[in-house]
C-alpha cells in the first residue's frame, strides 16, 4: 500500500503542510499516526486532490465535506438528490462565470485591435 509523508503531499500539490494539517483539523483528511508522524495513504491523496480541485471550482469546505460524506455513506435517494442540487447550483455559477469571462475576453480582443490600429496609423 502506498504511503506518503505530509511533506511529500505538500510538495506534490504545491501547498503548505499547514494547509494539509488544516484539512485534517476540519475532518476532511484522516491520516494514520505512527508516533507523532502522520502517514497518508492513497485515499488521503485522492481526497486532497479532490479538496483542491473543489476549492478551485468555488466549492466551500462545507460543500466538499458534504460531498465526501455522501460518498462515504450508502447513497440514499435523499443524499443523491442533495448531491444533484449541489452540482446543479455549482454548474449554474460556473456557467455565469464562463459567460462573463467570454464577454471580457471579447472586450480585451477589441481593445487590443484598437490599440494595434492606433499604433499602425
From TrEMBL:
Keyword hit for DNA-binding: yes
**Source superkingdom:** Bacteria
A Pfam family it matches: MerR_1
Which SMART domains does the annotation name? HTH_MERR
- Supply the alphabetized keyword list: DNA-binding
InterPro entries listed in its UniProt record:
DNA-bd_dom_put_sf, MerR-type_HTH_dom, MerR_fam
Q: Which residues form the HTH merR-type domain?
A: 3-70
GO MF term list: DNA binding; DNA-binding transcription factor activity
Endpoints of the signal sequence? none
The record, for CDD domains, names: HTH_GnyR
PANTHER family registered for this protein in UniProt:
HTH-TYPE TRANSCRIPTIONAL REGULATOR YFMP, REDOX-CYCLING DRUG-SENSING TRANSCRIPTIONAL ACTIVATOR SOXR
- The molecule here is called MerR family transcriptional regulator
